[in-house]
TrEMBL record:
Family from the record: Belongs to the AlaDH/PNT family.
Active-site annotation: H96 (proton donor/acceptor), D270 (proton donor/acceptor)
Official protein name in the record: Alanine dehydrogenase
Residue ranges of every copy of the Alanine dehydrogenase/pyridine nucleotide transhydrogenase NAD(H)-binding domain listed in the record: 149-297
GO cellular component terms listed in the entry, alphabetical order: plasma membrane
Domain named Alanine dehydrogenase/pyridine nucleotide transhydrogenase N-terminal: residues: 4-137
Gene field: ald
Positions bound to substrate: R15, K75
């Protein structure tokens, strides 16, 4: 199969979808891999590294896209990339469509087959292609939030660990999944006073057992959210309903109950965000202030630590990439019931229920397409 790896073009996105190690796995199976010139630079891989693994390095971006059957990316296609996609091509990348109507309509119009990393599942109820980046983003969330608490960033001037004689800062994490647990772990490591809210008692049980009371667990209700906004120096938004737009859990009105200079870090921004006042930001300008509250809402947080993130992401995606290249999308998805939910769009049809629901579009069951 002809596989293409474009250079990412989203603001401050330095990850790449395939490492030279991945290229070697594909070329060893007889596939042709084209990598855009400098695609791996931000993650520490040179064009020569890719060539040594058997890739063709392509400087002409138009030729790269046109010649591809399978396109591997990291972030959702930007407008100029959507315009390059065509019917018969398969795109494998993060999509987050429920938060992006224009992108959804663009992909439908392209006629391409679009498989999202974030909706692939596993036998333990997890999201194996989201988890590595959720781990990164959860760990970064506290770094970013701690920096945002500094006065020069508009923050309240709170040092999370406190000092002897001064209480530590309070961090509340809403959603105790992969992002949430990793954020809580970092906050705990810094010496903050940490609480996790979740709707899943089973998940709270796991966290309680794992952290033996060092992290408080609270069942997420409207009252618990009211308490969180009154008490917290930093709130991390880390909820997910797979494939769907995030629920808005903190409204603008609730910001009035927060201490001025408190910080909201909305990691769930890639699914639209879980705070009413969230809007996507970039690493170039990661924060903004609403009603005295600092908001950090970067939609591609892991892009800033591209070396670690690329290695973590591609370790997880490689087996699925190999399946797509070896078998084609139809057989690869038909053979793996956990890969199948990755299919979000095919030939003008929406094949993921939560995306169809988000925009009132007709849903096509992916089972009917893979035979
Ligand atoms: N901004 C960025 O750069 C990145 C963003 N993300 C995003 O972070 C979000 C979280 O991802 P994961 O932790 O992997 O998901 P996850 O599925 O591991 O965890 C989500 C948790 O939210 C809980 N939850 C759902 N609704 C809730 C509610 N109303 N109140 C409280 N808890 C609720 C669930 O029970 C679950 O424990 C996703 O939107 C993901 O796409 C992930 C990586 C990078
Ligand atoms: C999950 C995601 O959106 C990211 O890694 O950028
Ligand atoms: Mg996004």
């Amino acid at each position: 199969m002809k596989v293409a790896v474009p250079k990412e073009i989203k603001n401050h996105e330095y990850r790449v979808a395939l490492t030279p190690t991945g290229v070697r796995e594909l070329t060893g199976r007889g596939h042709q891999v084209s990598v855009q010139a400098a695609a791996g630079e931000g993650a520490g891989f040179t064009d020569a590294d890719y060539q040594a693994a058997g890739a063709h390095v392509e400087a002409d971006v138009k030729a790269l896209w046109q010649g591809a059957e399978l396109i591997l990316k990291v972030k959702e296609p930007q407008a100029e990339e959507v315009a390059r996609l065509s019917s018969g091509q398969t795109l494998f990348t993060y999509l987050h469509l429920a938060a992006e109507e224009k992108l959804t309509l663009g992909l439908l119009e392209s006629g391409a087959t679009c498989i999202a990393y974030e909706t692939v599942t596993d036998s333990r109820g997890g999201l194996p292609l989201l988890a590595p980046m959720s781990t990164v983003a959860g760990r970064m969330a506290v770094q970013a939030g701690a920096h945002s608490l500094e006065k020069a960033q508009g923050g309240a001037g709170v040092l999370l660990p406190g000092v002897p004689g001064v209480s530590p800062g309070k961090v509340t994490v809403i959603g105790g999944g992969v992002v949430g647990e990793n954020a809580a772990r970092m906050a705990l490591g810094l010496g903050a006073d940490v609480t996790i809210l979740d709707k899943s008692i089973a998940r709270l049980e796991v966290l309680d057992d794992r952290y033996q009371g060092r992290i408080k667990t609270v069942y997420s209700t409207a009252d618990a959210l009211d308490d969180a906004v009154r008490d917290s120096d930093m709130i991390v938004g880390a909820v997910l309903i797979p494939g769907a737009a995030a629920p808005k859990l903190i409204t603008r009105k609730m910001l009035a109950d927060m201490q001025p200079g408190s910080v909201l870090v909305d990691v769930a921004i890639d699914q639209g965000g879980c705070f009413e006042t969230s809007k996507p930001t970039t690493h170039a300008e990661p924060t903004y202030i609403v009603d005295g509250i600092v908001h950090y809402c970067v939609a591609n947080m892991p892009g800033a630590v591209a070396r670690t993130s690329t290695l973590g992401l591609t370790n997880a995606t490689l087996p699925f990439v190999i399946a797509l290249a070896d078998k084609g999308w139809q057989k690869a998805l038909a053979d793996d019931a956990h890969f199948l939910p990755g299919l979000n769009v095919h030939d003008g049809r929406v094949t993921y229920q939560a995306v169809a629901d988000a925009f009132g579009l007709e849903y096509t069951d992916p089972v009917s397409l893979v035979g």
